[in-house]
Amino acid sequence: MRIVVPDDNPPTMAGTPALARLRRIGEVRVLDSDATDxxxxxxxxxxxxxxxxxxxxTRFTADVLQACPxxxxxSIWGTGTDNVDLKAAAARGITVTNTPGANAVAVAxxxxxxxxAVVKQLPQADQAIRQGGWPRNLVPQLRRxxxxxxxxxxxxxxxxxxxxxxxxxxxxxxxxPDPGLAxxxxxxxxxxxxxxxxxxxxxxxxxxxxxTRHFLNRERxxxxxxxxxLVNTARGSLVDEVALVESLxxxxxxxxxxxxxxxxxxxxxxPLASLPNVLLTPHAAxxxxxxxQNGLAMAVENIENFLKGTPTHxxxxx
Length: 318
Description:
This protein is an alpha/beta fold. It has helices spanning 17-25, 38-45, 62-66, 86-91, 104-119, 122-130, 154-165, 179-185, 192-198, 218-223, 241-249, 289-308, and strands spanning 2-5, 27-30, 50-53, 73-76, 95-97, 146-150, 169-173, 188-189, 201-204, 229-232, 255-258, 278-280.
């Protein structure tokens, strides 16, 4: 059994209990440099039975999969699957698994931290004081404000619970609403247009798919309540960044907290980086020691279960 980690950059796997578990399964090769070039990725996986995918920027296209005839399983560390051609994998009999929920609490905490920091204007206050100022701006409270959650998967649910703890009213929209879940979380499902028009804070928690690309397009961004803020810790492709920049420049949106972007790393000179009402973090919401350990353990467990004939957390279409 040949197991290859083609993209452990920056290094995550080295020295972990998960790596020791992998070595009990078979021969393991860990590469600690990027595999964003398809030729490099194919060269690393050509003789692999199992690939452990660490970085979402590594793309398992149909051509890559075709060039790796031995590959039977791609075990993704993380929840996102937009970097894998799932249909092509299924057609070739390659199973793809992920680690849902491993980062849910961490990403939810980061989401709420961005929300608070943007609303309370914490970066601006910090910068002003460092420059000799003493700003005393009036900023809103979040209690009794309306949070609109778009997508009520595991992360969206954690955000809802935390927001309720802050005293916020939580409304939500998702592709497949669950009334029972709404009752348990103390939220209310509403129509998307209603959510966009009335929420004081909008938080995105959808998967990146062709259907959700630019989910918040120019038309939907125009619906947002004047003075609202946007938080995105899901995927950058969900938002039309050109339209978002315009809305922020014109101050139709009061601010945004963004952990994800259409191009990552954020290109030098990107307009978002020049806006004072935007707080930027480097796709780091799920980067905690707990997430790393738990997620890697789940990724290895998915391999173990696959080899037992009882695969878990399968995302490949049947």
